[in-house]
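Work Package 3 (structural annotation) set out to generate three-dimensional models for the target panel prioritized at the project kickoff. During this period the team completed the workflow that converts sequence records into discrete structure tokens, so that structures can be stored uniformly alongside our sequence database. As a representative example, we reproduce one entry of 652 residues exactly as it appears in the project archive.
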Amino acid sequence: VFAQAAKGFKASIYLHKQTQSANAKSLVAIMALQTVKGDTLQVSAAGEDAEAAIKALVALLAQGCGEAVATVAEPAATVLSATLLKGVCASPGSAFGQVVQVIEPELAIPEHGTDEATERAALARGLLAATEALRTLQDKACGSAQAEIFRAHQELLEDPTLLEQAHSLLADGKSAAFAWNRATLATAKLFQGAGNALLAERAADLADVGQRVLKLILRIQDSAWDLPERAILIAEQLTPSQTASLDTRKVLGFVTVGGGATSHVAILARALGLPAICGVSADVLGLANGKQVLLDADKGDLHLEPNLAEIEHLEAARKQQALRHQRDVAQASLPATTRDGHHVEVTANVASLQEVEHALTLGGEGVGLLRSEFLYLDRHRAPSPEEQAGTYTAIARALGSERNLVVRTLDVGGDKPLAYVPMDAETNPFLGLRGIRLCLERPELLREQFRAILASAGFARLHIMLPMVSLLSELHLARKILEEEALALKLTELPKLGIMIEVPSAALMADVFAPHVDFFSIGTNDLTQYTLAMDRDHPRLASQADSFHPAVLRLIATTVKAAHAHGKWVGVCGALASEALAVPVLIGLGVDELSVSVPLIPTIKATVRELDLADCQIIARQVLGLEEASQVREALRQYHAATVETSPVVEH
């Protein structure tokens, strides 16, 4: 009905949902928006009868296009009856402050240009200015992970597909602003329609880059937000650029409807130390500016009517955490040894030489996970063998011969595609050709990487780890290729070879794998989503896709038992290892190594020093018998509270 009505107008008409757009005269395009009840839509039009078209089509949507609809109150009349809104923790911490609704003004984009040469020059000017701005952001970034985000944004500005689409529209007489906007929106729509949470988050990056260039073409100055003190920002979505430029003297935290815990916005929030939650109900957009709210990001809660006791409790906890963090950093060089003498190795999850160097300054005892895909992503051609070998060798040299370097082989696939490795579209990429499956199907890719990794042998205690292994035959085939490459390089000693335990079949068959590996490292993120059949980035399921679930802990226990029976060590490199609350149960289950996010190394080491192995074993046995993750978390909170009481933090 809507498409037929739109065809009755001469104007060019588009229907918009967030960053997606559809030709309003195309039934297929409208269906591809996958609009559901509760979505906010916009209608835009350009042409002689544009105003009449917008008026008629907005009325048609409001009336339900012929279907009966419930009366919808105007936004100003929205009433929130709940006193608590739930979301997913994007960045931990808490804050008490006032609501500030963030709404970006809609830009007026002329469809038609003057002439193609002028519009091409305008697009080139906008792209050049955007590149320079992103280079400045990259230089100012407070860590390599943050710098990589803006480097990836720079890559998008040079993307041949985007530029080809834009230039094609310029040739049709469109304006530079219209052509660039249409190209970025169309590509973002493809990402969002892929049914993949990771690609949907990359669509947000593309929208960010698109808006940056668009404003530069239109010569619109990006003005700084005029924010009050103690602001808690509320938005449909924040972009990485907006997040990176937040004034942390005024902004205490933020809440978004969109986004995910693995998004670039979440990474930047953690780097800035700003508590944040995402995946909150759209009701949050109806909160009045100036309303006092309490953000408890650790629990994913936004309290709309906080009482004084809650505020005081969280403020006291925040001060205590700050004191603890100061002490933990000061003592970071101390070993992670429990009070009864049990040592746990605390290493780092890294994706660059800079992160390795930072980890060592924070007391990291080695690298428990080097994500080798950082060399391959966000580029248009594969890294040369020389570049790969040089990077691995530099990292190994920085660690030295007394520390472990665990390099994970290429972990890409349907959910993390490479522009230069053709891969078929997959209905469910998380269950498709990824990790070791992809590398064994393209063995030259694996051989080249093995050769590059082996170049670093002798500079550190080298370990190679295979991702997504589910079959023993995969391990045997990968080992055969590794042995052949080591022989070709005339190496007399092979590096240690292990597998990631992130597929339930591998955990259940750990006793079969154990005789054939040198170590296991448990990737709790994927292990959790495969065990519980829940996408960990799903905004409505993320709080339930919890690695504290007893089923996940039982698989960890099974893995450790099988490994130790064959004299092999077990690490945990998933996000669970970076949670202080999980440390007692992981130690109690017998985990030998915790590989954690770099900034959290001092905290995790300090947590280990507060524990007794015997007590950890008792609490681990107890939580394995519980029913749900929430019960496990509560039991560990009580245990943690009792432990901390015996190790008070004193301000010196």
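Confidence is low (pLDDT under 50) at residues 71-81, 648-652.
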